[in-house]
Specification:
Blueprint (H helix, E strand, L loop, with lengths): L6 H28 L1 E7 L14 E7 L18 E2 L14 E2 L7 H4 L6 E6 L16 E5 L18 E7 L23 E6 L1 H13 L3 E6 L3 H18 L6 H13 L12
Antiparallel strand pairs: 1-2, 3-4, 5-8, 6-7, 6-9, 7-8
């Protein structure tokens, strides 16, 4: 205790502590701060819902101090994922900003497999679209007034049972995803309906859209299993309306194969 009361001893201890801090602790701290690490950084503007491609991101070397634990460090981890929020050039990417599936308003577009196509038609007025009550998954019939200028109102056979995959407001916002659009006091009314159709159906729809005369009537809303049954019935109708014709070359090849097939030898009975 007497030593601590000695000013000389206290001065020496303070000097030693200062030297330890300056030449021991501070270099370690600076080394930690200056230590470099690689992260994934955004190189192009990415909007919420966009699929991230390799040209949108790059690997960048930055100081590792203060980086969040969940920052993405490998490029392959983000490619093919979907952005859950807008990302600007220079942003690093957190795993909480990524999703394995597309956003709700875009999901139906990524489910197209080439057998059918998505086609939008305009709802001219509120009544034409069931007073704004239509939603994705509904089965509707397309009603055509004065069909083909014949003075008759009919449901074309090609469009008896059609599935809705999206209902869209004038701003492009999908009105039936259940999401609340920011800064909107009232829900926007739908202006277009996107239908899942075959190429033959799309041609009929295009004619009706050009004429500006079509109405949608709700046929079914319920489970996906029952929805699929309506689609199957419509597919059968379309197959009957547009039978698939065999290619002439294929028919000729099949005929040639039959003619060139060697006849089975007939064994003569041996009579005793």
């Amino acid at each position: 205790m007497n030593l601590l009361k000695n000013r000389t001893v206290l001065g020496v201890i303070c000097i030693l502590l200062s030297l330890i801090i300056c030449f021991g602790v501070t270099p370690l701290f600076n080394k930690t701060v200056s230590q470099k690490t690689e992260i994934v950084r955004v190189t192009k503007e990415i909007k919420a819902g966009d699929e991230i491609t390799k040209d949108m991101v790059q690997i960048a070397e930055v100081g590792g101090f203060g980086l969040p634990e969940n920052v993405i460090r490998q490029k392959d981890t983000v490619i093919g994922k979907y952005a859950k929020a807008d990302l600007s050039i220079g942003d690093y990417i957190l795993n909480t900003k990524l999703s394995d599936i597309p956003a709700a308003e875009n999901a139906y577009l990524y489910n197209l497999d080439g057998s059918k196509q998505a086609m939008s038609v305009t709802i001219k007025n509120f009544a034409n679209g069931l007073s704004g009550k239509l939603q994705s998954g509904d089965i509707v019939s397309v009603i055509a007034p004065d069909y083909k200028k014949q003075g008759l109102t009919v449901i074309p056979a090609e469009l008896k049972y059609v599935e809705i995959i999206s209902v869209t407001a004038p701003s492009g916002y999908d009105a039936n995803t259940g999401e609340i659009k920011p800064n909107d006091d009232e829900r926007e009314l739908p202006s277009t309906v996107t239908l899942l159709v075959s190429s033959e159906q799309s041609k009929v729809l295009a004619e009706l859209e050009a004429d500006g005369k079509l109405h949608l009537s709700l046929v079914y809303r319920g489970t996906p299993a029952n929805t699929a049954k309506f689609i199957e019935v419509q597919d059968e109708i379309n197959e009957a309306l547009y039978p698939i014709e065999k290619n002439n070359d294929t028919e000729e090849q099949e005929k040639a194969d039959l003619e060139s097939k060697p006849e089975q030898p007939v064994e003569n009975e041996v009579t005793e």
